[in-house]
């Protein structure tokens, strides 16, 4: 029986698991994620799992990777510099639809061209302006092309992409390849984010495949898509944005495999995010509006999931306004002080001890910085280059490298580019202080919490000078914010909606008093009415209290810490393709294909032609993804209207789904 290898690269840990013939977990292992080169952590985890199992690498018939890299990159504002070519739209659309914010200073060109709703050319493509603009663009890793009504006729996107590749040799992301739906600005955003991720994901896949070869594993590499399905490594290179929510989607597949749960909330806590989704009938819900990660609503098909910047490595913020003060967690991820001290004990402990000797707390106490080697540093400003050089290859107290406020802005940019890591107090440090975790340096964590707890509230008193009490305060805050994330998801997925937004409902005084079991003149009892499957390495540390808080059954399955890696390899290959038939004039039925519009005189003939083209493409893509025993099914959604007593065809959308088992090498 073949061995299946699943690997998940999280924000803190990289997990590996060996499964025999999709039934038994043979071995599992964890290694620290090496963000400067993820393949190093992947190699360590695979070596450990092979050593534990005693199995030969040659016996592995399939390897599959799920990754939070794309998700975390979008949440943290990381990724390569990308150029956007925006065809047939207005310049004001860049600002009005949030594209200006997404560009964040990257180059963009608004170009004449585009098509009509019916697929006819609205204006010729201004190729001369495109050639001239490309001569001015520097330090761009990839380009995105989005044209008006490209899903009706992609000719201008394809031509612009051809020119960009010929002139620059850079990868190009076309919006119509990522979604068959209308809404040009949203497709443009999706294409831009995809372009920004191309280099990052391609680098990960290349290094992962190299690691597999070095270890003697000849099996093909699959990658988990955001809806939990598997795709080939080549497909993931071309469309890396489809891997956003890859890790969370794999965790849902893994949760179902581990527990058999049919109706539950699944909550997966990692180092950077907490991801919550709903299982109904044993299947995750697909978000009809497209995946949202951080501030970005994309057109990527993915599980309906709420991703919150809350994890074991979330930054602990001290709120010093008001008399009481308090703390909040996230959304930014920091390297835990306990981990930084584990890797560089001398510089960290020396700085912590010096800061503790000072009578007055400093602004940057218990915070450290280090550069990440091996990352492309092109396109930096002079100040950013100077700061990066000042940081160098060693660990420094943050206050020692920030000379001015402008340095702080430069540091944020370096962190966003992945060139620098900042360490500070996190829930992982609190867990080390409380003895719930023991992997890293608990002594450094204690010193860091003591320093942060000395900060003063608005009343002038210290926030919490006792590090053990402060650690419990942090864990309690994590419990509170996790409970809110679960409640928001539950309210958002209620079949009968409420009048308020899910986040307002979760925080409503009646909801919160009900969780506490208020009994006065009014009795209030609230909570979750379904079980929660808690996943993630730190779930056993935090989630029992979450279950008590919400009054629900908390399921913490065996192997919950590697559920993502399990889900990465027990999923199926699924390819969906959609297309549209319109009726531009009476008696004409237009099929919108990648090769351009195709007209028919009968609606049924047009729909049959579209379905045949979609089935052929879906089956071809499923085979390329490494599927076998492929099954294809199609669905049609027709829009009609009544006119003069007869039914008139308006539009039809056809969706084809090809599914199959991943092909396992003998």
Distance between the termini: 9 Å
| Rg, nearest Å | 26 Å
Strand order in space, largest sheet: 3-2-1-4-9-10
Helix segment tally: 23
* Count of extended strands: 29
Largest sheet: 6 strands, mixed
Give the class from helix and strand content and strand pairing.
alpha/beta
CA-based shape: globular
Strand content bin? 25-35%
Overall mean pLDDT score? 90
Name the helicity range: 25-40%
Poorly predicted sequence stretches spanning 5 or more consecutive residues: none
Blueprint of the fold:
Layout: E1 3-9, E2 13-20, E3 24-32, H1 38-53, E4 60-67, H2 69-75, E5 82-87, H3 92-96, H4 99-103, E6 108-111, H5 127-134, E7 142-147, H6 155-168, E8 172-174, H7 175-178, H8 184-214, E9 221-224, E10 230-232, H9 233-238, H10 246-259, E11 264-269, E12 274-280, E13 283-284, E14 292-293, E15 296-297, E16 305-308, E17 314-319, E18 326-333, E19 335-336, H11 337-343, H12 345-357, E20 368-371, H13 382-391, E21 396-397, H14 398-401, H15 405-416, E22 420-424, H16 427-433, H17 442-453, H18 467-492, H19 502-507, H20 509-515, E23 532-535, H21 539-550, E24 554-555, H22 563-570, E25 573-582, E26 589-593, E27 596-600, H23 603-624, E28 627-643, E29 646-662
Parallel strand pairs: 1-4, 4-9, 5-6, 5-7, 7-8, 11-23, 19-22, 23-24
Antiparallel strand pairs: 1-2, 2-3, 9-10, 11-12, 12-13, 12-16, 14-15, 17-18, 20-21, 20-22, 25-26, 25-29, 26-27, 28-29
Helix pairs in contact: 1-8, 2-8, 5-6, 10-22, 11-12, 12-17, 13-15, 16-17, 16-18, 17-18, 18-21
């Amino acid at each position: 029986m073949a061995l299946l290898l699943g690997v998940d690269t999280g924000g803190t840990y990289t997990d590996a698991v060996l499964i025999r013939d999709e039934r038994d977990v043979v071995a599992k292992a964890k290694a620290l994620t090496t963000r400067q080169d993820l393949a190093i952590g992947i190699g360590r985890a695979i070596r450990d799992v092979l050593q534990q199992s005693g199995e030969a690498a040659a016996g592995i018939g399939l390897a599959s990777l799920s990754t939070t890299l794309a998700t975390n990159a979008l949440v943290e504002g990381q990724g390569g510099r990308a150029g956007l070519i925006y065809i047939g739209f207005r310049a004001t659309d860049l600002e009005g639809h949030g594209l200006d914010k997404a560009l964040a200073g990257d180059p963009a060109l608004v170009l004449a061209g585009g098509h009509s709703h019916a697929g006819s050319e609205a204006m010729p493509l201004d190729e001369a302006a495109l050639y001239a603009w490309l001569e001015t663009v520097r330090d761009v890793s990839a380009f995105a092309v989005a044209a008006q009504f490209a899903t009706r006729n992609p000719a201008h996107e394809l031509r612009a992409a051809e020119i960009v590749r010929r002139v620059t040799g850079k990868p190009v992301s076309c919006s119509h390849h990522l979604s068959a739906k209308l809404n040009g600005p949203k497709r443009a955003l999706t294409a831009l984010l995809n372009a920004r991720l191309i280099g990052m994901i391609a680098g990960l896949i290349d290094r992962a495949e190299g690691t597999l070869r070095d270890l003697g594993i000849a099996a093909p590499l699959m990658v988990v898509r955001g809806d939990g399905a598997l795709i080939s490594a080549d497909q993931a290179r071309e469309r890396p944005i489809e891997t956003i929510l890859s890790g969370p989607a794999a965790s849902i597949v893994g949760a179902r495999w581990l527990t058999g749960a049919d109706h539950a909330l699944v909550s997966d806590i990692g180092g950077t995010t907490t991801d919550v989704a709903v299982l109904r009938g044993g299947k995750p819900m697909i978000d009809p509006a497209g995946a949202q990660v951080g501030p970005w609503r994309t057109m990527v098909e993915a599980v309906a999931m709420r991703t919150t910047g809350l994890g074991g490595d979330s930054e602990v913020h001290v709120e010093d306004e008001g008399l009481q003060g308090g703390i909040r967690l996230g959304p930014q991820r920091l390297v835990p002080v306990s981990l930084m001290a584990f890797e560089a004990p001398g510089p960290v402990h020396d700085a912590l001890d010096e800061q503790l000797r000072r009578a007055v707390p400093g602004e940057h106490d218990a915070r450290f910085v280090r550069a990440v080697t091996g990352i492309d540093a092109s396109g930096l400003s002079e100040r950013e280059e100077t700061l990066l050089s000042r940081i160098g290859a060693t660990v420094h107290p943050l206050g020692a490298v920030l000379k001015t406020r402008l340095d702080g802005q430069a540091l944020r940019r370096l962190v966003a580019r992945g060139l620098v890591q900042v360490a500070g107090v996190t829930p992982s440090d609190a867990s080390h202080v409380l003895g719930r975790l023991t992997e890293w340096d608990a002594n450094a964590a204690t010193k860091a919490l003591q320093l942060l707890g000395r900060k003063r509230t608005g009343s002038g008193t210290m926030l919490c000078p006792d590090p053990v009490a402060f650690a419990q305060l942090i864990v309690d805050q994590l419990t509170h914010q996790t409970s809110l994330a679960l409640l928001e998801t539950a309210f958002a997925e209620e079949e009968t909606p409420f009048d308020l937004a899910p986040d307002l409902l979760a925080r409503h005084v009646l909801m919160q008093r009900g969780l506490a079991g208020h009994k006065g003149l009014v009795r209030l009892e609230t909570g979750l009415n379904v079980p929660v499957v808690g996943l993630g390495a730190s779930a056993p540390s935090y989630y029992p209290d979450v279950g008590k808080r919400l009054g629900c059954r908390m399921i913490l399955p065996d192997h919950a810490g590697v559920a993502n890696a399990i889900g990465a390899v027990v999923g199926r290959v699924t390819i969906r393709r959609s297309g549209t038939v319109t009726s531009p004039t009476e008696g004409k039925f237009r099929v919108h294909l990648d090769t351009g519009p195709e007209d028919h005189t009968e609606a049924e003939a047009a729909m049959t032609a579209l379905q045949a083209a979609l089935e052929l493409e879906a089956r071809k893509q499923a085979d390329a993804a490494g599927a076998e025993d492929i099954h294809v099914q199609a669905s049609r959604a027709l829009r009609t209207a009544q006119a003069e007593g007869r039914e008139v065809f308006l539009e039809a959308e056809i969706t084809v789904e090809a599914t199959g088992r991943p092909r396992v090498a003998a």
